[in-house]
Amino acid sequence: MTRGERRAAALATLLWSVATIGVAWHALHGIDHAARSREALARAHALQGRAPSPAFPMHLDVRELSALQQDERPLIVHDPDGSELVTAPVKDADDWEIIGAVGLYSRWREMAISTALPSFAALLVAIGLMVGVRAVRTVGPRVAAVGAGALFGAAAAATTLQLRDAVVALAPRAAAPPALERLALAPPSLAFTGLLLALLAVSGALAVATIHWHAAQAERPARVRETLGAWSFIAPSLAHLLVFTIAPVGFLLWISVHDWDLLSSDRPFVGLAHFREIAHDPLFWRALRNGLVYALYVPVTMVAALGAALVLDQPLRGIKLLRVVVFLPYVASTVAVALVWQWLLHRDFGLLNAALATLHLPRVDWLGNPATALPALMLVSAWGQLGYMMVVYLAGLQAIPQSLIEAARLDGADAWQRFRLVVWPMLRPVSTYLLLTGIIWSFHGFTLVYVMTEGGPAHATDVLVYRIYQTAWEFRRFDVAAAMSVVLCGLLLVLTALQWRTVKGEAADA
Amino acid sequence: MADLALAHLVKRFAGGVVGVDDVTLTVGEGAFTALVGPSGCGKTTILRLVAGLEEPTSGTVQIGGRDVTWLPPRERDVAMVFQNYALYPHLTVRENIAFPLAVRRMAGAELSRRVTNAAELLEIGALLDRKPAQLSGGQRQRAALARAIVREPACFLFDEPLSNLDAQVRAQTRAELVALHRRLGATILYVTHDQVEAMTMAQTVAVMARGRLLQEGAPLRLYRDPASLAVARFLGSPSINTVAGRTTGARFEGALACEARVAACADAVLGVRPEHLVLGPAMDAAPAQVTLVEPLGPESLVRLRLRSGEELVARVAGEAACCAGDAVGVRVAAGTGLFFRAADGTRLA
Prior knowledge:
The complex is a heterodimer of chains A (510) and B (349).
Chain A: H1 3-46, H2 62-71, E1 75-78, E2 84-91, E3 98-105, H3 108-131, H4 135-139, H5 141-168, H6 190-216, H7 222-256, H8 273-279, H9 282-294, H10 297-312, H11 319-331, H12 334-344, H13 351-358, H14 370-399, H15 402-410, H16 415-426, H17 428-444, H18 447-453, H19 464-474, H20 478-509
Antiparallel strand pairs in A: 1-2, 2-3
Helix pairs in contact in A: 1-3, 1-6, 1-7, 3-5, 3-6, 5-6, 7-20, 8-20, 10-14, 11-14, 12-18, 14-18, 15-16, 17-20, 19-20
Chain B: E1 4-12, E2 18-27, E3 32-36, H1 43-51, E4 58-63, E5 66-67, E6 78-81, H2 93-102, H3 108-121, H4 137-149, E7 155-159, H5 167-184, E8 188-192, H6 195-201, E9 204-209, E10 212-217, H7 219-224, H8 229-234, E11 241-247, E12 251-254, E13 258-259, E14 265-272, E15 277-279, E16 286-295, E17 299-306, E18 311-317, E19 327-332, E20 338-341
Parallel strand pairs in B: 3-8, 3-9, 6-7, 7-8
Antiparallel strand pairs in B: 1-2, 1-4, 4-5, 9-10, 11-12, 11-14, 12-13, 14-20, 15-19, 16-17, 16-19, 17-18
């Protein structure tokens, strides 16, 4: 193992360790805080009207008290000896006056530290490798791996206990104000504990593997070494992907088969009920149909973009400036574009209608008429996307070897034949890419609808993402919205799979 | 087939760079002419002017007596084989070969007969349903050739067609191209920077430098009787040895001395081919030191340094009798020296 390799391996481990520590720290803090908030609210609710205490906890100052009264949300305060606790107001039987508070202490720091312990161990090994300490080598790879495994087992056990402690019992403190209810808590969610333990198990296995790898890599064939090296380089982004992409998707799937709202902690499993509901929702089908019609702007824009690219591919003076001008709309903020176009398309003051008026044609309420609203949105989308598609086509055109065009000229092909028989087939991968990504993006389309029409008039521009947004944030039906998102996700997955297959096919041809 | 005639062809590029400077060249009907010269000498530009891919600044191009100077490529009836073959990657070999016929609206039995013939001539009949990406370099080369011959053009243009092949395939393809030329009786203008290709394949070699045509003629004539130092230097490998000196009218005097029955010139250059240097003690031999011996099997190259510092290469049959470090005498075999004016490189007569 060369010095450079050792450095690289150590650096990878170091990165991985830091990432694990960060992830664990954040996850635990968030989980602990959220769990305590929920529990505080639930307990406060259960205590409502029981008037257990004569007075408020004295350490809540006026500002904090008014915050409690106004928001009726959990509030983080500090008790006299500085410990952080989450409080929730307890109200009287009329749900009018605040008569007490529930406070839960946090133990997330201890939890995070114990979770991070194994990572620290890996970190130490990494540093050791980096500075050339060969302790791991001398005890042998097996012993090192077993040792790391044992370290992990101990840390995991400690963390489990800590976790249970933290969520099972509110820490009783002598210094707590007498008015504060001291409550025993049931575990808020086994799922969180499970998630944490899974995280621990995975990182533990990773650390053991890494240490074993460090110690034994001299004996390993280069292929395996490279594979492991590659994985340890990927690990930080993999962790990011897991936490911020895969976990939310899993959460979405979970919500879609449960009755789920923000306020109630009772979330029963309902199977496919939400999917049945959207299947019978005419507005959902309307949105789907609108989405399919809206997607038609993609092929139309592609034709225009290819035309523009063919023109802008000519070596003329000032052509670069023209390319920039065509590309500009794509760079502009969608919201700004939407506002400008809203103005252009305005029934009374719009430029478009002014032009129609000078031609003695009747005015059209572009965005107010159900028959023209969706085509108007498609026009704006086409205008915005034209530059991007043109640039992609231009790149595609310029990637075609000049000698192929020259060969076609010598072979006797006229301009149209050169385009039809050589240029267009050579652009096929570009076209496929633009078509599929364009359609995928058109199904993501939200901003224009949100800013320009809000789905109206009469749901004429109601597309899936807008439907999801409205269902979740206006009707507060997060579970139904999640089910719609799952359907949309499935649709896009099919399109993406199609794109992959096509791209692969093209690659095999080239 | 038809002859190809270039008259006073000039190509000046934007920015004033002269690519081709007053070139007049004729390729007879059925002749194989190679255009050679160092990179950037304008030989490919000439090819593109003939193909119609570039427009000349002045001068004319005639094919079969017809002035095609201002005609678009497809009306010139020429076929070109590109250095990178320029096969259409999205078409099969069959479709590639059929392309020139298909764009001329040929179809059916005639088209498939001609495609099959061309493919069989180049022995790629079994590859017709493959895409270019599935072929080796040599096979692509053949497919590109088949596409060129399928339409039976008035003349063929080759733009360094062998330079992307490895050495073994290149040698084989050289012989095959010559055989193909003989069989088709085609008029060929062949551009290459490799003098070996030019010497071995072409009936006529035209040497270019800096946009100008320096000399044309049969390969061996150019080799033995170059009109200028540039031509002498370009042909032959290893390159011709040069020694500075002066001619008196009877002798050349310099680091090497020899008989020179040419005009007297105070500032002359002796050019002598490696095979014309004789090693061994002799009356008029110049003392030299052997710096390197390169045995090639049937012959050896002996690199020498004269006392005055000039480096020479001698080619001797079989194994060399000397080895590096030896002191030897070297002289020019009688009547083999070529003499040039140092000032402009022209041959002294």
